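Hi support team,

I submitted a single chain yesterday and got back a structure, but I'm not sure I'm reading the token output correctly. Could someone confirm the output below corresponds to the sequence I sent? I've pasted both exactly as they appear in my results page.

Thanks,
R.
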Amino acid sequence: MSVSEIDESDLITSAALEEKAKLKRHFSRFDIYFFLICTIVGVDTLAQVATNGAQGFLWLIFLCIFFFVPYGLLVAELGSAIPEEGGAYVWTRMAWGRLTGALNSVFYWFSNPVWIGATLAFLAIAAIQKYFFEFEDGSVTYYIVGLVYIWFSVWSAILSFGVGKWIPTIGAWCRIALVAIFSVSTVMYASQYGLNFPAASDWTPTWAAFIALVPLIFYNLVGFDLPSAAGDEMTNPQKDVPVSVIRAMITSILLYGLPILAIICIIPPKDLEGASGLLDAVDKVFKVWGSAESIMIKFVVVMFVLAVVSSASTWLMGADRAQAIASVDGAGPRWLGRFSPKLGTPVNVNVVSGILATMVFVAASTVTSGDAANAFNVTIGVVLLFTTLSYIVIFPAVIKLRKSHPHINRPYKIPGGMTGVWVCGLLTTFWAAFASLVGIFPGLGDGELLNDADLPEGVTRLGYTSMTFGAIAITLLVGFIFYRLGAPTRANLVVDPEAPVDEVTV
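Hi R., thanks for writing in. Yes, this is the structure output for that exact sequence:
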């Protein structure tokens, strides 16, 4: 079959084939499982969910059943059926075309360096500042710690995947150790001092808690698709992806549910302070260790910091690879997608991510008050929603590809035939759309159509909406520019010899 007879979305560029030839297969089932744990279980938001008390735990379990499980089944099918480098970008390109894939890829990628520079860097600084070294905010030491955190994460993404993959593995074990020690300590604490278990009335679902928690919990639970961005580096994705996803699904629910339940049973929600709440709970519970308290706290804080570092590393490894493949596939500037012949990693996009994260970190550290700070914080919040927005396009691809590419070999299929596919596709897409809508319009339906009391402090509804749609419009513009810059690369479309599509491989 000639190239002209094949749908363009099923073709690949000669540039992409050139870059993919630099990849090495050393991503095993063991690695995928721990990569998933590190990707999904974020210690930075555990306490934010717990600040909502029993409601936080209630809605976590609800979304685990009605979002997380269908999401895992969806990725198990797509990741094993289309195990190509680029993962979610390739799925969206095959389902909706290159332009849609190009625009969505920018949203999928761009939020990660912003998250690292605006959230994770400050979390790492705060933990080190409180438990190891005293230094002033804005001091030289402050900036050194933040920049070391950012560029260590970038460096770990640049490393050969055969080496770099051990950082997520270490990070996953740190999460397991942290949760295990914290859970054991909580049992010891309960036996000595009792618990502050929420009253029965606190478990009654409320709309206000629901709309406040859905975007946060949704953001916590995404990440199943990230290892598939390294599809051509997996040793046996057809078998390993479904098994790893199912195992990681069960483990992640436990690693989220146990510490959140423990936190709400120890500290009243009003006494928790956002991201630092987990360490606040550690401070309170670990007095059961007596003379060893200081050592145990420091050990757990080290686990906490390593978990935060590995979160940045895994998301950079995955999202940067997706954007790199998009770029060499004609959906972005060619230079952004170059892989190192020696390392087999997309160095250029990794460095760009590091530069973006650094700019955001410096800006967030400098702009601390007034209207400029309000505008900056709102913009950052919106950009962090970009990952959520990208899934509105990714999730329904499973339905489209079942219909448009029925001949693909699917080693794993969502149970229930097309009914099961529709259920998983629609449920996940609904939650992605709902989380995005509530994030863009805070206070939606909270006692009125739009409750302005739920807006960030010091920001009007008009101001918030303007900045929100302004950030989205600018990112769309970047996506169109990237697509335009990819035109010369798209001019050389060829048949992908490894594509999982019968017509293409004829």
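A quick pointer for reading it: The chain has a mean pLDDT of 86. Let us know if anything else looks off.

Best,
Support desk
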